[in-house]
Design goal:
TPR-like_helical_dom_sf; single chain; TPR_rpt; mainly alpha; about 80% helix; Serine Threonine Protein Phosphatase 5, Tetratricopeptide repeat; 18 helices
């Protein structure tokens, strides 16, 4: 049994004791922990039940701090469900209530989570400003988990901006905190994102090692979303190695797991489906074009200028998603459909591009 399941069992037992003792403050805490654990297990319906129960109790006994903490967790739940409007609504309430009752830590946590919503909405610079401010608060209070979480979030922004050095620096700091505090969730999140940096740098061996370390931790603690994420990453590495059957197997495994826990429509699941679709397309297309059959050797005076317009963007593009949006691949294929040599060249070139 994974550590998340063990913790869930423990807090369910605590919940029964809280009920017997009529300890409502402790019950609110237990319900919030259980709501968070259910999120990690991907059981969002059960998470919502726990958190709604905690919210009702906190309002009934007028526990403002408990209410703010619960609203903050509800905000994170809806963030995971990609319902950013509802998420922002809960987080703004949490922030205001925490501020009014003097709960500075929950106020900071809510602000940090608002930054996460902004990040998902594409407002990376706004998110980064919030996290830089909150990081100072966490450093002053010595809140190590908060610091590590902020480092991971900032690492995401730097990664998206292709500032790999800065991204690596903050992610390494997060990993140090995770290892020092034995926080396995922080460790696996840091390892996965550091692996993505190495993957972008084409250090596939290094990326694979980090992904496997992260995957083993996720399997140990029972983090199903983490397992799906890292399995997808390993599938992309297999794709780069042109191990298409293995890549497809890992993509299907990752999507199947997400679908099983109700995240079949999540951004991650949709990304995996695109990977599967592109892999099928590329396999089918290359299968129909044999480099041995109908091969046309280029002449010594082959005019590379003629192929440059069709391939220039292919060469510099980083993802198949960009190719799809701009139609470059289809344009090249249509233009050179009667030239097997050029078609084979195009397919060979695109196989080297990322589909993550």
């Amino acid at each position: 049994m994974g550590k998340i399941e063990d913790a869930t069992k423990h807090f369910e037992e605590s919940l029964m004791i809280n009920d017997q003792l009529h300890d409502y403050d402790a019950k609110i805490g237990s319900l919030n922990v259980l709501g968070d654990l259910m999120m990690k297990l991907g059981d969002f319906n059960q998470s919502l039940i726990y958190l709604q129960n905690a919210l009702t109790i906190s309002k009934t006994i007028k526990d403002s701090s408990g209410e703010a903490s619960t609203l903050n967790n509800l905000g994170m739940l809806y963030t995971k469900l990609s319902n950013f409007t509802e998420a922002m609504n809960f987080l703004n309430q949490a922030q205001q209530i925490a501020k009014n009752c003097g709960d500075s830590l929950t106020e900071a946590n809510s602000s940090a989570n608002i930054g996460i919503v902004l990040y998902h909405q594409g407002q990376m610079d706004s998110a980064l400003k919030i996290w830089e401010k909150i990081l100072k608060i966490y450093e002053k209070s010595g809140y190590e988990f908060g610091k590590a979480s902020i480092y991971i979030n900032m690492g995401d922004v730097y990664y998206q901006k292709q500032k790999y050095k800065k991204s690596s620096q903050v992610l390494e700091e997060a990993l140090k905190i995770g290892r020092k505090s034995h926080d396995l969730t922080i460790q696996t999140n840091s390892l996965q994102k550091l692996g993505m940096i190495l993957q972008d740098k084409k250090d596939y061996k290094g990326a694979t090692e980090l992904y496997i370390q992260g995957l083993q931790i996720c399997q140990e603690i029972g983090d199903l979303v983490g397992i799906a994420t890292l399995t997808n990453n390993l599938g992309t590495i297999e794709f780069y190695g042109k191990n298409f059957n293995s890549a497809l197997e890992k993509y299907n495994e990752a999507y199947g797991l997400l679908n099983q826990i109700g995240l079949g429509n999540s951004p991650l699941a949709q990304s995996i489906l695109k990977n599967i679709e592109h892999l099928h397309q590329m396999r089918n297309q290359t299968k129909n074009i044999s480099p041995k059959a109908n091969w046309i050797e280029p002449k010594k005076s082959f005019n590379w200028v003629s192929v440059t317009p069709a391939l220039r963007d292919l060469k510099t593009s980083h993802t198949f998603g960009k190719l799809d949006k701009r139609g470059e691949l289809n344009t090249a294929l249509e233009k050179y459909k009667n030239s097997p040599w050029l078609l084979y060249l195009i397919y060979s070139w695109t196989l080297s591009l990322s589909i993550a």
